[in-house]
Specification:
Layout (H helix, E strand, L loop, with lengths): L3 H6 L5 H15 L2 H9 L6 H6 L1 H15 L9 E8 L2 E8 L1 H19 L19 H20 L7 E5 L6 H14 L4 E5 H13 L3 H10 L2 E5 L8 H17 L4 E5 L3 H9 L9 H14 E5 L9
Parallel strand pairs: 3-6, 3-7, 4-5, 5-6
Antiparallel strand pairs: 1-2
Length: 311
């Protein structure tokens, strides 16, 4: 800055102190980023404004040099930036690119953990899904993810109907559901996975602990719910009507996305799994009520192919 010493004379009567300050001042304003900042804002900042804001310029250069030297600053992960606010120089701090990536990676890990996926499915990625012979369900999965993003993030989309994946053992039903869940987690959409036979056992244990209502309410209100391997274990009429039925009724009424997988088609699920209880009672109307809710919530896709678990 030309003739900056003229402005400093009014602030420092001691010549020696003024010279030390001027030397430090010149070092700071010769920093490339500071020089560019002052040049870009020369119409907004008078010489007096620059003198008054010197402490901010010094803070900016000091923190920047500490970060470059690998030293720990008072705000780890945040870098300083200079701005002008009402003719005042200010320093603001924004997350660095590496820190933002680190936070995003940790957030994804936390989201995946919250999904409750078994360890064998935690590395499932839709980008790695073998498309051969499974083009239709994969296309439906990608459309579901896009629709969910619009539905929850923009709050203006239509209800994203889920998927009901049916087919024999090992054809990739669980993997695709897990890959969908992880992709939704990347978009910070809440999703919970339930292995249905395990879930049934947990609900039976919860009766003695008086926790059934708590668990049901959690599932009812989760943004996206996955019931994997439904139909593979016998259930009681209480599980069918007062647990599964209540959950599906609420999610249908509130248009909350729900996905399923089963070795049985929806029709087979109704006739072979939901109609006959563990006591041998036949209750086709109650079974029909459940499957109608499933049909509202999800479209069935039949998956075929080799057993990828034991090829």
């Amino acid at each position: 800055m030309d003739n900056i010493s003229d402005g400093l004379k009014r602030r420092f009567h001691d010549q020696q102190l003024r010279e030390k300050y001027l030397t430090l001042f010149n070092q700071v304003i010769q920093d490339n980023e500071v020089a560019n900042f002052l040049k870009e804002n020369q119409d907004k900042l008078s010489k007096e404004d620059v003198i008054k804001g010197f402490s901010k310029l010094y803070e900016f250069v000091t923190i920047k040099d500490e970060m470059k030297a690998g030293k720990k600053t008072f705000a780890p992960g945040y870098a300083p930036y200079l701005i002008v606010s009402d003719h005042h120089i200010e320093v603001v701090y924004k997350p660095t690119e590496s820190f933002s990536k680190q936070k995003k990676s940790q957030q994804l890990k936390d989201n995946i953990k919250a999904i409750n996926l078994p360890k064998s499915l935690q590395k499932a990625r839709i980008e790695n899904y073998d498309i051969k012979g499974r083009e239709e369900p994969l296309k439906a999965a990608l459309e579901f993810i896009d629709n969910c993003t619009t539905y929850f993030k923009q709050d203006n989309g239509s209800f994203p109907k889920g998927l009901y994946l049916s087919g024999s053992f090992g054809v990739g039903k669980s993997y695709l559901l897990a890959a969908i869940a992880i992709k939704l987690a990347e978009k910070n959409i809440e999703v919970r996975y339930y292995h249905f036979p395990t879930f049934v056992g947990e609900m039976m244990n919860a009766i003695s602990e008086n926790r059934t209502s708590q668990i049901i309410n959690q599932i009812k209100n989760t943004a996206v719910v996955i019931f994997d391997d439904i139909g593979s274990t016998q259930i009681t009429s209480w599980i069918r009507d007062n647990v599964l039925g209540v959950i599906l009724e609420y999610r249908m009424a509130n248009e909350l996305p729900t996905l399923f997988s089963s070795n049985l088609s929806i029709s087979e699920l109704k006739d072979q799994f939901l109609t006959v209880t563990n006591k041998g009672d036949s209750e086709p109307l109650k079974a029909l009520r459940i499957t109608e809710r499933i049909k509202f919530l999800a479209t069935e896709y039949r998956m075929v192919g080799i057993n990828r678990r034991n090829p």
